[in-house]
Amino acid sequence: MPLQVNGTLLTDLGRMRPVNEDWCGSLEADDPDAVPAEPSVWVIADGVSRFGTGRDAARLAVEAMLGAGWDNPGLDPGRLLTTAVDTANRILWSRSHDPSAGNRPHAATIVAAVIRDDRAWIASAGDCRAYLIRAGKMRQITRDHTVAAEEARQGRLRPEDIARHPGRNTITRCLGQRATVQPDLFPESIQAGDRLILCSDGITRHISDDEIFQIAATIEPKTAATRLVDLANQRGGSDNITIGVLELASTMSNRPTNPRPILADVSASRLAALQEMGQRITASLELSPTLRSVLDSLVEITGGERACIMLRDANTGRLEFGTGRNMDANVVAGDPSISRSILGSVFRDGKPLILGDAAADPRFNAAESVVSQSLRSVICAPLIVRGQSVGVVYVDNSMGA
């Protein structure tokens, strides 16, 4: 039976690193009812930081994985997943030997999940992990490619001693390390009620498997992901932190009749894409075309009526209008009338905000713009550079949606 994927991806700088060298992204079927069904694709990459190119390597790896042609109706998901990993590896290897890029090594660990109908395929290279939760139990699907893990598999190290071994973080396999890579591929049969957990080692360095299970087993995916990120930070946040929590549900439930659902309905599966857009903005050297591209994607994935990007003015510290557009692809000129209280809250706190009904929220229902425009739903996310908010991405719907 085909399964619906309800999931979220979250990435966080952590507390010790100046740059987030993790990258993540996902693709979901344009038409969930298509036959054959298009797969759902989820990817996390962790850049190898010692080369100083980790962020770029992780981004290139995720983009290559997501751009592998998943809309081809005749695809073999497992074979295409392996091909996509190979393509990503060749891109990083080529970049490592590109004089224009300084011949600097580009390497990243990776974990990816492809889900179609009642089957999943998991690929990994490195120490990013995937877990399966089913019927009150959790098991690790992937195998760590580290010196310590290899020693344990060969019987020279007890599993309980891996965490104390000096080679626990020394990677033995990853993308960009060699001209070719042999990823692990794990086919899985899945069923309604299962959960898949994908994560970088920023999670597993600080949180045990038992704790991951306790948090991720029953809580709504976005809340579970947020709690795991917060817990890793509370325990030191020594590395960048990325987590994906995917819930598999039956497609027999009633579908919404509204062709453009309110933003809160799609927030759990779209928030990661919104945050990825923020990464694209803050990493871009050509800001204007990047802003326009991000807004096009933002309106498309959320079904929002209006979207804009606000950037902090370096001199005044105030948020100033960058660019905006509406659902008809018309550019919004000048500074649109949007809720400054919502923008200010997200900018100050540096955390995403999701409102299912802004007019009913006691924090913002008195704001003039919320009342005058009868805002129905809002998603707003910060743009973070080196741990500091430099702007916000904003999208809303009105009661007339």
What would you give as the CATH superfamily of the largest domain?
Answer: PPM-type phosphatase domain
Roughly how many Å is the radius of gyration?
21 Å
Cα separation of the termini: 33 Å
Shape: globular
- CATH third-tier fold name of the largest domain: Phosphatase 2c, domain 1
- Structural class by secondary-structure content: alpha+beta
Show unreliable segments.
253-269, 282-286, 368-373
Number of domains: 2
Strand content: 25-35%
What oligomeric state best describes the polypeptide chains here?
Answer: single chain
Q: Helical element count?
A: 10
In the sheet with the most strands, the strands line up as: 1-10-9-6-7
CATH class of the largest domain: Alpha Beta
Helical coverage, percent range: 25-40%
The overall pLDDT, averaged over residues, is: 81
Count of distinct strands: 15
Largest sheet: 5 strands, antiparallel
CATH architecture of the largest domain: 4-Layer Sandwich
Question: What sequence of helices (H) and strands (E) makes up the elements?
Answer: EEEHHEEEEHEEHHHEHHEEHEHEE
